[in-house]
Design brief:
By secondary structure, the chain is an alpha+beta fold. The chain contains four helices and eleven strands. A hairpin with a 2-residue loop joins strand 1 and strand 2.
């Protein structure tokens, strides 16, 4: 999608935006609530040998096998292996008829933001971030980057093909 198409799409967004806030390596990330199916903790995960490093493993979630992906690795923002004594938290999303869990460092609140609290991503962003982001939201104390989950997961499935 070209920058011009993205800008036109962003300009047509309704006045209120609802995002699930998460943190990865300290960065505040917003996921569109319309893309989020559920939020869950991971009690037992089965590793997948020789899988891409973004694939954290498989879990049994309410009787369904779910692939768990590390959102930090998908965004190339994970600097180190996740080290936490707490059970990992994941955001459940549906893509092409399958449910995926996206591991995050921390899950925050659902935020309702007005359209004028955001701006398009700066043109000088790296191509990895620019492909997967919609805009930057100005909050009271920090900035939150809104992720385009469909673009991110579409690229992931193309790499797997």
């Amino acid at each position: 999608m070209s920058a011009e198409q993205r800008m036109r799409r962003d300009m047509s967004i309704v006045d209120e935006i609802q995002l699930v806030s998460v943190r990865i390596e300290g960065q505040l990330i917003g996921l569109p609530i319309t893309s989020v199916r559920d939020v869950f903790s991971i009690t037992a995960m089965t590793p997948v040998p020789k899988a891409d490093r973004a694939v954290a493993g498989l879990v049994n979630l309410r009787g369904h096998i779910v692939t768990i992906l590390d959102l930090g690795y998908l965004l190339n923002s994970r600097r180190t292996e996740r080290q936490s004594e707490q059970e990992p938290m994941a955001v459940g999303v549906e893509w092409l008829g399958e449910v995926f869990g996206l591991v995050v460092d921390e899950i925050g609140d659902v935020l309702s933001l007005s359209g004028d609290s955001s701006e398009p991503m700066p043109a000088n962003m790296g191509t990895n971030w620019a492909r997967f982001t919609r805009r930057v939201h100005k909050l009271e104390r920090e900035l939150m980057i809104e992720i385009d989950l469909h673009a991110l997961l579409e690229t992931m499935s193309l790499q797997a093909a």
